Prior knowledge:
It contains 15 helices and 15 strands. The chain is an alpha/beta fold. The longest helix has 18 residues, at 79-96.
Amino acid sequence: MAHPLRFPSPAGAVDVLLIAGEHSGDQHGARLIKDLFRKNPSLKVAALGGPEIARSGAQFLFDLTASSVVGFVEVVKNLPFFKQVFEATLSWISEYKPRAVVFVDYPGLNLRLAKAMFERGLSRKAGGPIRALYYISPQIWAWKAGRRFKMAEHLDGMAVIFPFEIESYGDTRLPVEFVGHPFVERDYEPPVAYDKDAPVLLLPGSRRQAVRRIFPPMLAGFQRFGERGAVVICPSRAIEETLRAANPPANVEIRRLDENHAVEIGAASSSAVSVAGQARTPIPASAVLTSSGTMSMHCALAAIPGAIVYRTNPITYLIARRLVKIPFIGIANLLLREAVYPEYIQGAAQPEALGRELRDCIHNLDRVRRTAELAAKLRAILRQPTSGSAADWVEKFLR
């Protein structure tokens, strides 16, 4: 039997435990932690997350992003690990009782933890001492909308980063506040920038299983395009090895960026926090083929024309088609209610079609202008309201 996980003990009372289980949540969570420390340097914060949270100043308990997976089949394969993480986290919360637990997205684990806290009488809603707060809503507007009623029962508050999400909880008693999107805050440092003469960006994601499926058709599409070089950004040695296994040609540069550079790929990056006070230089791109994760939003805000490429396990895809009832998988497309990035999913992700998309992105000036117009519209939609930031929202529950 595997030895049970046990996280480090805190040095004294803990104000906030933050839990982020994916690369995007790691970036958003790190930013939130740093904002909290700017407002109140004496706060005691512990966290589960990834490399950005590890550098945020919080006591780092465990790297959840190292084993991040997506899809029904992939989750089932990793159930023993997730059960260990669940038990270790719940045990830590029960023993050390932070004033608040801030769940950052990652509903597969976080909603179960919120429920368990309620059932054990730990959360405020159950008469306990701990505020259960959720930052970045699960996509209840896409699937499993019924979760919102249990969430309202178990949580003290929800902060959302897309304005339309407030109405998704309108028939519950859960207090929901729109706090703006981190990518449009004033000190946001974009990881990418549009440059008509730059290489093409290929962004297949930050999870190994997804990269194995998405990168080969993406690479083949680029090769059909064949007019200039490409840059592929990857966040780790493991992802770099997966990319190189596809045998990219010499004009495709694989760039693995560390903490002193611009960005981590796919769902991995907000790139909003500089390292050691150093500004990060955005990666220039003339066009992009991207997975549907957080990087697609970065690229849309930077007005880089492109398309979304997505492939997953066939069984996962068939299940998702039955459960998910939304017109797009790219969040920028959903927010704008039009395909700023055309979506090539599963069998539609064919090399010739993707090559045509890249040619159109480079040579169709009307498309370039339209992408810039939609980027400005997207920024306006996501702008932070006057009511305050995510850190302001957390602080209200700590008073």
